[in-house]
Amino acid sequence: MLLLASTAVAAAQADPAATRAYIDKAWTTLTRATDDCASLVDPKVATEPVLYLPADVPMPGSLEATRHRCKVDVRRLPRVVTALGQIDARTLPVQGLLYLPRPYVVPGGMFNEMYGWDSYFIVLGLIADHRVDLARGMVENFLYEIDHYGGVLNANRSYYFSRSQPPFLGEMMRAVLDDPASFPSADAATAWLRKAYPLAVKDHAIWLSKPHQAGDTGLARYMDLGAGPVLEMRNADYLKGVIRYLEKHPAKNRGYLVKASEHPDATEAARLKTRSCDLAASPICADAWADGYRLSADYYAGDRAMRESGFDTNFHFGPYGAATHHYAAVGLNSLLYRYERDLHDFALRLGKPAEAAHWAALAALRKAAMNKYLWRADRGLFMDYDTTTGQPSDDPYLTTFYPLWAGLATPAQAKSVRDRLALFERKGGLAMSDDASGAQWDQPFGWAPTNWLAVKGLDDYGFHDDARRIAAKFASTVDRSLAADGTIREKYNMVSGNADVQITAGYTENVIGFGWTNGVWLKLHQLLDRAPAGKDETAAVTP
């Protein structure tokens, strides 16, 4: 938790030049490679470093030296991996880093590996900062993950084998392909795409598979393929807190509490294996007991899905995100629509018109389903849909702007969403919601990626004044925070317009780094530094 003294805030002089200088140094500070000792450390688990190689990949020569220099145990995975979930990470003798061939930028702090959705905003920043080799290398690392680990992973650690993250690969590929400096020629770019395209198709298929289907809506949901507590959880304190919260708020308990013994006998333990989690397989599961209760298997499924969504922790998708897997989410399906449009364009570039038509048809079906289930004409917003109740959410969430970024909203829908900016806009930028739950992905907190997607969507639909105003607010929040304590952070308080974040539900740390904030700040300034595009057709909204 970061507490900024009021005197320091008052004395701080926001200076974009200082922020720019910080970011310039931070790219080097945050760059890792799997033959670098700094990349092997995992602050989330208390084990000696292990590096896993794919079962069918020869030992790179550089790793022999790394083994001795870093005192790391280099092992091979027990089998060739072709899909997510094929390796149950609980069966590995120890958790470790997964080998990647190219250097990459990590978010910072305890996030010392290459993350799925963080990396999109990092790649945008690297390209804006003319570090194209590093940006392209990160995209190639994701292609390597698909080829050798079954898909784009949450991050390159073995305990993430069961889940992905918000699907931005198509847009990462497009960003690299659209930058003239990324390839020596157009032919070289096309040759690269020819190898990348089938891997992207394989990654996209994850989101069409049965586990990721949101009921019969034709839309997708987040869904981790594992069970029980996540392996990166160091102890059961978080889970005990969830139990106690649900006890105090019975109206929010959707069957998440299971009456159980603290030390069950073999018969009860066998029953809990399906009703809750496998006590024998997970010490965290065994310890996750409070006041006569354990958590249900459905809770653990939702908790894992929440982590795949990247919104960990929130109360928008149920208490502690526990119902995430029951929602056809606006954000996810907007990303998949954009992915399908990207694959359409890639197929055309490669001379595959039949495949391009397939992707266009898939995108059209998704857009129609989103209009049916996710567009709330009565609220003027895109809102998530609970497939278990057959009802839309009543809680406006900042992902309502994703359809603008994805280009699937009609002009009338875009204007309607834009006209409701006051639901989210605060002094420091856009907050995630109007629900002050105490969780970091709710009010009053704001994040670089969601602010950027909203700004870009508004700008693309011609609401230039709104886009520039919000860009200036968020960029200034980053500047003020850096002036106050010399750091760039993971998240910010949109109400106070600084990094004073006091979280009471879930993670309390405001991590220093920070990869996606660095990248988004650069993109916001690209927008702010260009010539104004003219007045919006309607008056700007200023809460």
Automatic annotation (TrEMBL):
<keyword id="KW-0326">Glycosidase</keyword>
<dbReference type="InterPro" id="IPR008928">
    <property type="entry name" value="6-hairpin_glycosidase_sf"/>
</dbReference>
<keyword id="KW-0378">Hydrolase</keyword>
<dbReference type="Pfam" id="PF01204">
    <property type="entry name" value="Trehalase"/>
</dbReference>
<dbReference type="InterPro" id="IPR001661">
    <property type="entry name" value="Glyco_hydro_37"/>
</dbReference>
<dbReference type="InterPro" id="IPR012341">
    <property type="entry name" value="6hp_glycosidase-like_sf"/>
</dbReference>
<protein>
    <submittedName>
        <fullName>Alpha,alpha-trehalase</fullName>
    </submittedName>
</protein>
<dbReference type="InterPro" id="IPR018232">
    <property type="entry name" value="Glyco_hydro_37_CS"/>
</dbReference>
